[in-house]
Amino acid sequence: MDRREFIKMCGLLGISVPLTSCKSDSGSNSTPSNSSGSVLIIGAGAAGLAAGYLLNQNGISFQILEASSTYGGRMKRTTTFADFPIPLGAEWLHASENELTKVLKASSWENSIELQGYKSQDRVGYFENGTLNLSPIFDAFGSDFEDKKFINCTWFDFFEEYVAPSIQSQITFNTQVVSIDYTGDKVIVTDHNGSLYEADKVIVTVPLKILQNEVISFSPSLPYSKLNAIQKAPIWGGIKVFIRFAERFYPTYLTFPDSETSAGQRAYFDAAHGQDTSFNVLGLFAVGQQARQYQLVSQEAQLEYILNELNQVFDGKASQNYINHVVQNWDDEPYIHSAYLADIAPSSISSALSSTIDHKLYFAGDSYTQEEDWGAVHNATQSARRVVEEILKP
């Protein structure tokens, strides 16, 4: 299925890993590079971590400045809600199985991470005008639907185990960048405390919404083409909600007439799919306009709204079986404030966003992709790889 179809986009962020393995035997071995100079990376999400990992592999001096107190960005997860980790951001895996091999420069893996795809007996519900219709998942989403989920781990766990250890000492947390001056030979970065950082090159990996909100000032001003792309970029907000029930009364997916529109997307899904658990956890994913109905209400009204919506579909079983829930409103997440670049954005915007400035200022992340695909972890890591390769060129 095309990425512009809804279920592909449910992944928020996600990429595929080899089914037989997930541990690199290459460790943090680095290959000396002919390139000289230092690099500052702004942001420790998927792109920032991948860029740091690849620079480290090539013996390049670097430092990562992260505004929050932890790394991972929109790969955030919680381990306290169920007996398996809940991915509050990245969840489904639907890109090439070669992506992690490319990120880690690993040719072999140990079988330490399990993936679970969907099976023909899984059902998709479609609710309209008071009627719920169930279809086999491959009839609903197409025979080429190959998305998979991590079992007992998440995207965050993968980066935590295989990417972060070799570079974590180079991450400076609680450091919000407020200005970048690339006037001279060196790039000068200033944080919110007034501390200065100097490097030969800077890789900006912050969420696009941060640039759109002008949280970071640039001197000289960014070129018109990039500024125009930043300001015109349609960015979807997003929310994920996970609800624990006493019993499972729902299909693998639940969709509606507005599950995929030009304004946004939404669906419910079995968050415990494939997990070795007795927990019944239903997830809600919504972005764009479809997310607003869940975001623009109080916490109490939000839960009531969701339960009432599910009660209409399942004859009151949601309220009868409700235990607890957890909410991740990405619009309210500090230093992020959004989900991702909207599906409806023209590809020219992503290309303009990713352009390099004066061989000193680089942009990497799920929005800065130079291609007609964005919004996922594999897009972020691919862009990081592209930028590092550009930096390494003589």
Automatic annotation (TrEMBL):
Its EC number is 1.13.12.3. It comes from the Bacteria. Keywords: Auxin biosynthesis. Signal peptide: none annotated. The keyword Amino-acid biosynthesis does not apply. Transmembrane segments: none annotated. Residues 168-392 form the Amine oxidase domain. It catalyses: L-tryptophan + O2 = indole-3-acetamide + CO2 + H2O. Belongs to the tryptophan 2-monooxygenase family. This is Tryptophan 2-monooxygenase. The lineage of its organism: Bacteria, Pseudomonadati, Pseudomonadota, Gammaproteobacteria, Alteromonadales.
